[in-house]
Batch of 3 targets.
Target 1
Amino acid sequence: MSVIDDTVASPLQPSFKRALEAVESSRIQGLINKLGMMVHPEGGYFVETDRDFRRVPNPFLPLNSNGREGDSNDDLTRSASTTIFYLLTPSSPQGHFHRNKGRTMHTLHRGRGRYVIVHADEKEDAKTAKVETFVVGQNIHAGERLQWMVEGGKYKASYLLPDKEGENQGKSEEGLLISETVVPGFEFADHDFMPASKLADLSVAVKRSSFFKSLFRIWRPPVSNSGLPGPLKLGEPAVSLQS
């Protein structure tokens, strides 16, 4: 894994700007309606399609001084797995930087997009974290990915790309539609957005590279009226990532 994708010739720039009011094409709106999707706080749309009825011990519970699971308000168990459809569209084309505690397998169904992964959980020294970026799409001969795994503890963000490579002002007829399967199953308690303190922690890397500078101008975590990262609420419009 390289720190920066070799195919990126210039700082990353989203191909689509988020609309103030999401007005989707009839084709995309038909897809949203057919799948029963709702607005996702990370950006885009989603619908949960499966939640395993089997329960497994919650691996994220903190340990007490005796090495045993300590008292916690969290559930003692999690679903074995959960799966969702996730959709980015020209009107809602970006996903905020966030992370899950569980590992997430992504599977592409249609469209193209770029993912940016910040490996903040495995910094090589006290100052920098690796950044990985890649394109997902059907053109596997050009290095585009059909499946990708994001391990727990890593921040990820994504944005929609045109259907055809090289079209900066191109079109996306059906958006970027993927499935995500989280193991153990997703719970809001196991999810958070990238806070300002984490950006500050990566500030040395930001100063060293125009790539990092551009990256963090583009992506911002949603904020509440207090200026702090806002709570994750289902079905509410996400804050724009544009600076």
Note: The longest strand covers residues 103-110.
Target 2
Amino acid sequence: MMKLDTTIIEALSLDPNTTTVKTHGSSGFNATAKISTTLNDGTQKHLFMKTAHGQKAEVMFRGELASLNAIHAIVPSLCPAALYTGVSKEDGTAFLVTDFLDLSSSSSSSSGSSGGSSEEQQQQQQQQQHSGMSLAAKLAKLHTTPAPTPQGYTHPVFGFPETTCCGDTPQPNGYETSWANFYARNRLQAILEKCERNNGKDAEVRAMVEKVVEKVVPRLIGDEHLNGGKGVMPVVVHGDLWSGNKGRGRIGGKGAAVEDVVFDPSAVYGHSEYELGIMNMFGGFDGKGFWEEYHRICPMAEPVAEYGDRVRLYELYHHLNHFTIFGSSYRSGAVAIMKDLVRKYGD
């Protein structure tokens, strides 16, 4: 059994005599644990905790806390709420604590229990699993709700109040009134610079990214081009929604409904179609009727004929990010996308 840091006990007002913590699950960049505590009324409450060391972890956890809560504020059943992030006064460990997400319940909820007919058990299971909204509908609601207006602005803009991390890549999120400018500067140019720091100079990749920024970005996602010159509305997007960051489970644990859920976000106030880049890159969202249901609620931007190329432009960022983190095996995918987009829109 692990020892729970006193900083967390104090921050969350937990009773150390009725609180335990043990290793739970796994994460590519952090240690993870489950906190269990008994409340004054005798009920048990579970929380989820990530820990890591160093300033990068502090940045990552602040971004994830803000990301989870931005999503949760719009669609509470889509992800757990984040409760606290901070640094241990004992050893400097950074930590993030959220509501517990029981992903194992997606299978255990269908197991039989003693008592009751099979028909009653089936009805009970359906009631437990019925969320009222599919993953497609939840994402569409997220992507059609205007992002919050940041302090100092009179309307929603593109960016985010915290630096967020996609994988372990810190993403600059300074506010921009132009989506094209935000994507060019804070995603493509920023990841190119980090890629060169990690992997060394690459003249071909640099030249192509610069061409995409100069020609393709304004041509495909410029404010004067999208939606007949109306541009796009900033909405909260998850930011790292590949199939490994979604599932079915109970937020808060026992007694909650089994829901389609997402986790490990790196959110931004951006174009809804930006979300689709990494979803398209790795797949896993091709279930029966998923995209039909999603687009009934969240239509493609105009011009619809360029929708596929916009998604590929957004997918490009994730190829470059994977090239940055994991090395040259992802270089060819990035180059192929850039060559195709430059051929079509680079004149």
Note: The longest strand covers residues 44-52.
Target 3
Amino acid sequence: MRPKATGTGIHLIGEDQIKVFQVSLHRKSLAYEEEMAQESMSSAHVGLSKPETIPSVDSTSTTSPAAKEEEAPWSVQFGSKSPLSKLHNPPPPTTQSILPFTHLLERLKTTPRKGWKIRQLKDPESISDHMYRMSILTMLAPASLSSKLDIPRCTKMALVHDMAELLVGDITPQDKVDKAEKNRREATTMEYLTKSLLGGVAQRGISDAGVGIMSAWQEYEDNLTLEAKFVHDIDKVELIFQMMEYERRERVDLGEFVHVAKKIELPEVQAWCVEVLNEREEFWKEVRGGDLSEVRGLDDAESVREKVKMVREG
């Protein structure tokens, strides 16, 4: 028995009465909570704000640390998606030496261009192979174009325009990475290369090359100057040259790439493109006994020829 205070004195109550009292309190509590919930719903219907609630913590969440890490955005330096985390000898966080930067450049020599690799071509060109020939092509601009251009600037742009791919990789449509995300990865990589790695070198007064590299890369990305437009065209025509060389070497029709030629803007580069596309058709005529009915890309090639013809005529 437990004592109970009343207005007339103290009485004893039994355990059964305590239980009844506790059940009664519980029922009143539930009724109150239900009433508050109904008021909250009514308030929502008439445009009043709901009472603020504290979100509960789901202690039963099944999201594993690995899954959370998979959802994290791509980063140059941090997390499991960082390309630096996969290197055998990653660069130090800070440096005043050119060596970490130059060692990373080696990746451009060993990373194949993915568009050729996924088509299982033998010994596909590397990223630096592509940029090297581009840089030479900039020096071959005809006088009608070179007189309007800063050729050394074009050559520099050609040499650095794909530099970010040493960590980002050669992203293709098959990777399903949208353009905004691709641009973000490349821009953050160039910031890392030119500021984190080469910024320390500049502090020693040796060189401010990082600033110049970033400037040339950004000019190419913005594609506003005549120099940038020229290098963008060179990027495309170099691909057409390489396509033709693989076709000749491996007797494989890569005509799905010819459409790139239609995006070339400058007449002088279009003329180069027509030369190699004419060479391509002669090659396939010889291989297939004059029958070009199954050769891909011929309509696109004709479209480029028409553009060049219109420029020449007028």
Note: The mean pLDDT is 82.
